[in-house]
């Protein structure tokens, strides 16, 4: 029975799809199989896939072929026909050699057509004293150098065009390149939708609901991750992020949002790190999602909402639930805790805690964020030069400019600005709306207003509160005594609050106690 052969074909760009690459590699593979009496069983093709960083072997058809061999779907004594070794890899020599050795160690016979139909097998490489392996190293090393040179030239050409003011690459959906390719115009209809997305997120509306709104209102086909990526995209404030690992460019695009609005949303999203992902409840049952921690051990608190069998919402330490250290296993009444937080932080006249809530990022916050971005650019450029991926002479001027910008940000005197505490003025009204909405829902009215108010409350707390440390309640006679501390963002310590709630009286237990007293 004739042995089977597999043809692996690859070319680097989509433009080559219409060229001669496919025909040339297919013809040479078929002719070799016919001469050697092999049955050309399958063709694995990576069309428009680069081998410079190993994408073809990690995510492409070559990787799928090797996985099929490992799983026994393809016999390991198969012959793999390629045009040349650079079809398999153009990665650095260590990665390329690892891939090459992995192929022959599987028992695969590797044939390179252009290299005088060179045949590589494990036995042949071992028996010739390493000369065959040395030759393959030279071929793969040359292939990597060629690709690295092309890559560097391409980056230098792009950098030169950027220095001359030319714009290139894909542009955000809300922008259009001018005919002379030296600027952008804002597509106002699209930009307005993006502004609406940021406005919704600033009101603590999650990415899933925003995606649903976009799809229903504008006929888009957006998913939750796409919305999340948009909300993290600094292009809205004019910054261009390079997909090739180059330094970000500030003020490259015309901004469609202020930096304060952008960093406000980033701060709100950062406050949700580590929270439970997935479908969010429409009624916002927990307005402190991601902010609640056990006051005893520091673990997160899990939220339990009301159900048919449980009339109230509760919190409990995750470590205590999993029995991984915390011994405080009592439940914490969430409703009493939420009521106390709202009343204390929003309505307490003695302390000015409400002044810390819902403040937009100040000039100082924006400058700090920009300074961080500049230092990241600087570090990235230095790494690229150290790795030999960029010409030092080309980036020296850019590094000098970055250093001047960093020094300016570090020494700049930020003028004090008056805090516009819009939230402080409406705090009372917001709490009143919340109470009225709860009563309205209890009377059978639609809950939309209640949901909206709870989203506003949630946004305010997530912007300015880093965490609540909540302690389990202690029962003293007919009362439960609770305690929690709050840490505001940018502050080391926070105030501690103690509160009380009446304990539920067990009627059965009370009757039983009275009965025993009468007997006594």
Give keywords.
520 residues, alpha/beta, 5-stranded mixed beta sheet, 4-stranded mixed beta sheet, 18 helices
How would you describe this protein?
The protein is of the alpha/beta class and 520 residues long. 48% of the residues lie in helices and 15% in strands. The protein has 18 helices and 14 strands. Strands 2-1-3-4-5 form a 5-stranded mixed beta sheet, with helices on both faces. A 4-stranded mixed beta sheet has the order 8-12-13-14. Strand 1, helix 1 and strand 2 form a beta-alpha-beta unit. The longest helix is centred in the first third of the chain and has 33 residues. About 4% of the residues have low confidence.
In which order are the strands of the major sheet placed? 2-1-3-4-5
Beta-strand proportion: 5-15%
Kindly, what is the distance between the CA atoms of the first and last residues, rounded to a whole number of angstroms?
100 Å
Query: What would the average pLDDT be, to the nearest integer?
Result: 80
Query: Which spans have pLDDT < 50 for at least 5 consecutive residues?
Result: 273-279, 413-425
- Shape, principal axes of CA atoms: elongated
Number of helices: 18
| Overall number of strands | 14
Largest sheet, described in full?
5 strands, mixed
Estimated radius of gyration: 32 Å
Give helix % range.
40-55%
Structural class: alpha/beta
């Amino acid at each position: 029975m004739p042995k089977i052969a597999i043809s692996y074909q690859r070319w680097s760009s989509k433009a080559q799809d219409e060229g001669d690459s496919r025909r040339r590699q297919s013809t040479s593979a078929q002719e070799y199989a016919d001469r050697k009496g092999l049955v050309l069983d399958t063709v694995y093709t990576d069309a428009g896939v680069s081998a410079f960083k190993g994408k073809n072997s990690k995510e492409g058809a070559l990787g799928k072929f090797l996985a099929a061999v490992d799983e026994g779907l393809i016999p390991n004594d198969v012959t793999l026909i390629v045009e040349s070794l650079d079809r398999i890899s153009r990665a650095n020599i260590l990665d390329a050699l690892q891939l090459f050795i992995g192929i022959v160690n599987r028992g695969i016979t590797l044939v390179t057509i252009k290299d005088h139909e060179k045949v590589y097998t494990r036995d042949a490489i071992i028996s010739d004293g390493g000369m065959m392996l040395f030759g393959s190293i030279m071929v793969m090393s040359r292939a990597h150098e060629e690709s690295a040179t092309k890559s560097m030239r391409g980056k230098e050409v792009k950098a030169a065009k950027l220095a001359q003011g030319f714009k290139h690459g894909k542009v955000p959906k809300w922008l259009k390149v001018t005919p002379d390719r030296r600027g952008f115009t804002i597509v106002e209809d699209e930009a307005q939708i993006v502004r609406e997305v940021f406005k919704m997120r600033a009101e603590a509306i999650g990415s899933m609901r925003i995606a649903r709104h976009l799809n229903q209102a504008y006929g888009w086909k957006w998913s939750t991750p796409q919305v999340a990526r948009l909300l993290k995209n600094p292009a809205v404030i004019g910054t261009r992020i390079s997909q090739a690992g180059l330094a970000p460019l500030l003020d490259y695009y015309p901004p469609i949002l202020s930096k304060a609005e952008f960093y406000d949303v980033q701060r709100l999203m950062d406050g949700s790190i580590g929270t439970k992902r997935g479908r969010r409840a429409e009624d916002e049952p927990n307005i402190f999602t991601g902010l609640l921690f056990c006051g005893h051990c520091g673990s997160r608190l899990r939220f339990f909402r009301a159900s048919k069998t449980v009339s109230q919402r509760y919190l409990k330490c995750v470590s205590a639930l999993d029995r991984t250290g915390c011994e405080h296993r009592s439940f914490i009444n969430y409703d009493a805790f939420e009521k106390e937080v709202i009343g204390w932080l929003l309505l307490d006249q003695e302390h000015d805690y409400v002044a810390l809530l819902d403040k937009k990022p100040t000039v100082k916050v924006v400058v700090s964020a920009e300074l961080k971005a500049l230092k990241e650019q600087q570090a990235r450029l230095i790494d690229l030069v150290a790795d030999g991926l960029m010409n030092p002479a080309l980036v020296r001027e850019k590094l000098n400019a970055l250093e001047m910008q960093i020094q300016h940000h570090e020494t700049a005197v930020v003028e004090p600005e008056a805090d516009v505490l819009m939230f402080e003025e409406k705090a009372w009204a917001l709490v009143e709306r919340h109470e009225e909405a709860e009563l309205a829902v209890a009377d059978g009215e639609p809950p939309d207003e209640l949901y909206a108010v709870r989203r506003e409350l949630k946004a305010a707390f997530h912007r300015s509160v880093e965490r609540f440390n909540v302690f389990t309640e202690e029962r003293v006679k007919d009362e439960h005594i609770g305690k929690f501390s709050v840490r505001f963002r940018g502050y080391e310590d926070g105030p501690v609050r103690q509160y009380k709630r009446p304990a539920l009286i067990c009627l059965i237990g009370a009757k039983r106690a009275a009965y025993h007293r009468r007997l006594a």
